[in-house]
Write a structure and sequence with these properties.
heterodimer; A: 465 residues; alpha/beta; OB fold (Dihydrolipoamide Acetyltransferase, E2P); Rossmann fold; 5-stranded mixed β-barrel; 5-stranded parallel beta sheet; B: mainly alpha; two-stranded antiparallel sheet; 2 strands
Chain lengths: 465, 83
C-alpha cells in the first residue's frame, strides 16, 4: 500500500511537472493581444501583459532575444525600404495591438507562466496583410491575374503615359534610365499622389483619363519602395479594377523587387522597380547603336565582297578574251606557218643532200668502173662454164633416177609373171579366184594369160586342198 | 488628341529594311546596277538610323488637372525632383 504522503508533491516538483507539460505543449505559439502594464527597466528587457476582453497573459521580451533593429517584416517577409527599422521593443506602447511569437514558460519563483517573446509585430500591418490576401484571392478568382489576358508591350513605344508622383524618387529613377533608352518618345506625366487616402481615387482617375484620351500606346504606373502601408493605394480594389479594364497595355513598377501589389499583378507587365519599368519599355540605345553598327559593317562587307566577286570574274573573262582574240589566233597561225615552212625547207634540203650524196657515191663508183671491167671478164666465163656443167650433171642425175624408178615399177607389174606362164582366174563378175571355195561346179570362169583371156567351166567337185 | 503618324518609316522599319538589304547584297547573282542601288539605299538607311539614334531624346510633359500640358524638366544637376 502506498502512503498518502507519497502523493504529496513539493511545490518545486509540481512546478516542474507543470513546466514540463506546459512547455512541451506550447513550444512555439503566436498570440495576439493588447499591450498593458508595459515596463522597460534599465536591464533592457521589456515586460508587459497581453490582454483581450477576458484574459491576460504575462510576457517578457528579453534583450538577448531581439535584434537592435529589424530588416524585414517577420510576418510578410517585406524588406524594409530605407534600411532596417528600430525594433518594436523600443516603440511598444500600452494599448497597442500586437502579435507576438514565442514559447510559453513557467517562472517558478513567482508561480507564474508567461510568454517568452521572440518577436513581436504591430497587428495593424498584419491586418493589411490579411486584407491583401483576401483581395488577392478575390481578384484571382475574377481572372484579373490570368496570364492569357496579358497584352504584350508595344515595341519601342513613342507615346507613353506615366502615372506617378512628379516629386518622388520613382519618376527620377524612371526618367534617368529612360534617357539612355528608346529612340525619343513623348512621355506625358500624369501627376498623382501615390500614398494617402486620396491616392487610389486619383490614380484610378488618371488611368481613366489616359484611356479616354486614347493618345498613349502604353500606360506606366510607378511608385518607389515603401512599407506595405505606404504601397496600399496600389492594393486598392478599385485601382485594380480600373487597370483590369484599361484598353491599352499597362506596365506597373511598384516598390521594390519584393513588393507585389494587386496593381502589379493586374497589370499586363510587372516591373520590379520604376527603373526596371523604363528598361522593359525601351531597348538600350547603346545596344541599338551596336546593332546598327553591325548592320552597317555587314552592308560594307557585302558590297565589297560583291565587287570582289565581280572583279575576279572580270579578270578571268578578260584573260579568256585575250586568249581568244583574232590577233592572238593570227599570231598562232603565223607561228604554225613559219614552223611548217622551216620543216619544209629542212626536208627539201635533206632530200637534196641525200640525192647529192648518192649521186656522188655513184659517180665515184662509175669512175672506178673502167679500170676493173677487163679483170671481171675471166671469172664471168668461168662461172658460165660452171653453171652449164652443173646443169648437165643435174640432168644426168635426173635421168638415172628416172630409169631406176621405171625398173622398180616394172617389177611390181602383176601382168609380168604371166609372161613366164602364170595365169590369173577371174569370175564372170571380174573378181579373182583365190580359193577353191570360190568356184562352184559348172561355174564359168576366165583364165587371164599374157596375151588375153580363155573362157573355162569348172567340172566336178572342187578339191579342197 | 491623336498625333498623326508621319509618313517617314520608323526606326525599326528602317533597321529591318537595312537587314534585308544586307541579305540581298550577299546574294552573288544580283545585277550590278541593282547591287549599287541597294548599297546606296543601305548607306542612306544606316545614316538615317544613326541620326535618329544620335538625336533621340525623350520629350516629357506634365499634364495638369485642367487638361493642360507643360514641359517637365529635371533639375539642373540632372536629378529629378525629390520629395
Amino acid at each position: 500500500m502506498t502512503k498518502a504522503s507519497e502523493h504529496i508533491l513539493s511545490v518545486t516538483a509540481l512546478t516542474e511537472a507543470i513546466r514540463t507539460r506546459l512547455e512541451a505543449s506550447f513550444p512555439f505559439v503566436w498570440v495576439r493581444g493588447q499591450v498593458t502594464n508595459l515596463a522597460k527597466p534599465a536591464s533592457g528587457h521589456v515586460y508587459f501583459s497581453l490582454r483581450d476582453e477576458e484574459c491576460s497573459l504575462a510576457a517578457v521580451w528579453f534583450k538577448s532575444d531581439r535584434k537592435a533593429d529589424q530588416r524585414f517584416d517577420p510576418l510578410t517577409g517585406e524588406v524594409f525600404e530605407g534600411g532596417p527599422r528600430p525594433s518594436l521593443a523600443l516603440t511598444l506602447e500600452n494599448g497597442q495591438e500586437v502579435i507576438c511569437a514565442g514559447r510559453v514558460a513557467v517562472y517558478g519563483a513567482r508561480g507564474q507562466y508567461q510568454l517568452i517573446v521572440e518577436f513581436a509585430q504591430d497587428a495593424g500591418a498584419s491586418r493589411l496583410h490579411e486584407e491583401f490576401e483576401r483581395l488577392r484571392r478575390k481578384l484571382a478568382d475574377l481572372g484579373y491575374f490570368a496570364l492569357e489576358r496579358k497584352r504584350p508591350m508595344p515595341p519601342q513605344p513613342r507615346r507613353v503615359a506615366l502615372i506617378t508622383s512628379p516629386t518622388g524618387a520613382a519618376v527620377h529613377d524612371f526618367l534617368r534610365v529612360a534617357q539612355g533608352r528608346g529612340l525619343g518618345s513623348r512621355v506625358r506625366l500624369y501627376p498623382v499622389p501615390v500614398q494617402g487616402e486620396a491616392a487610389p481615387a486619383r490614380i484610378g482617375a488618371a488611368l481613366l483619363r489616359v484611356a479616354d484620351e486614347g493618345w498613349a500606346q502604353v500606360a506606366v504606373l510607378i511608385r518607389g519602395g515603401g512599407s506595405m502601408e505606404d504601397l496600399w493605394a496600389f492594393n486598392d480594389e478599385a485601382v485594380a479594377r480600373t487597370i483590369f479594364g484599361m484598353p491599352l497595355p499597362v506596365l506597373a513598377g511598384i516598390g521594390h523587387e519584393v513588393d507585389f501589389t494587386l496593381a502589379d499583378m493586374t497589370a499586363d507587365l510587372r516591373a520590379a522597380t520604376p527603373s526596371h519599368a523604363a528598361q522593359l519599355l525601351w531597348p538600350d540605345r547603346a545596344e541599338t547603336a551596336r546593332r546598327l553598327r553591325v548592320f552597317a559593317e555587314s552592308l560594307m562587307r557585302a558590297a565589297d565582297r560583291s565587287l570582289e566577286i565581280r572583279n575576279a570574274r572580270l579578270t578571268v573573262l578578260d584573260r579568256t578574251l585575250a586568249l581568244l582574240s583574232p590577233a592572238r589566233r593570227l599570231a598562232e597561225r603565223q607561228e604554225r606557218l613559219q614552223n611548217a615552212c622551216l620543216l619544209m625547207d629542212r626536208a627539201w634540203r635533206d632530200l637534196f643532200e641525200r640525192c647529192d650524196a648518192r649521186l656522188q657515191r655513184l659517180a665515184l663508183g662509175l669512175a672506178a668502173c673502167p679500170a676493173s671491167l677487163p679483170g671481171r671478164k675471166l671469172p664471168l666465163d668461168m662461172l658460165e662454164g660452171r653453171v652449164v656443167q652443173a646443169g648437165n650433171r643435174f640432168l644426168e642425175r635426173s635421168l638415172h633416177a628416172g630409169e631406176r624408178l621405171r625398173l622398180r615399177l616394172d617389177a611390181l607389174d602383176p601382168m609380168a609373171p604371166l609372161e613366164r606362164g602364170y595365169a590369173l582366174v577371174r569370175k564372170e563378175n571380174g573378181a579373182f579366184v583365190r580359193k577353191t571355195s570360190q568356184a562352184a561346179s559348172g561355174e564359168a570362169l576366165r583364165l587371164v594369160v599374157s596375151d588375153g583371156e580363155i573362157p573355162v567351166r569348172v567340172e566336178g567337185e572342187t578339191d579342197h586342198g | 488628341m491623336v498625333k498623326k503618324t508621319t509618313p517617314e518609316p520608323d526606326f525599326e522599319t528602317r533597321m529591318q529594311r537595312l537587314q534585308d538589304i544586307v541579305q540581298e547584297l550577299e546574294r552573288a547573282d544580283l545585277p550590278l546596277e541593282k547591287n549599287v542601288a541597294l548599297y546606296k539605299e543601305g548607306r542612306a538607311l544606316s545614316r538615317a538610323c544613326k541620326e535618329m539614334l544620335d538625336k533621340a531624346r525623350h520629350e516629357i510633359s506634365l499634364c495638369d488637372e485642367q487638361g493642360g500640358e507643360s514641359p517637365f524638366v529635371l533639375d539642373a544637376d540632372g536629378e529629378g525632383p525629390h520629395d
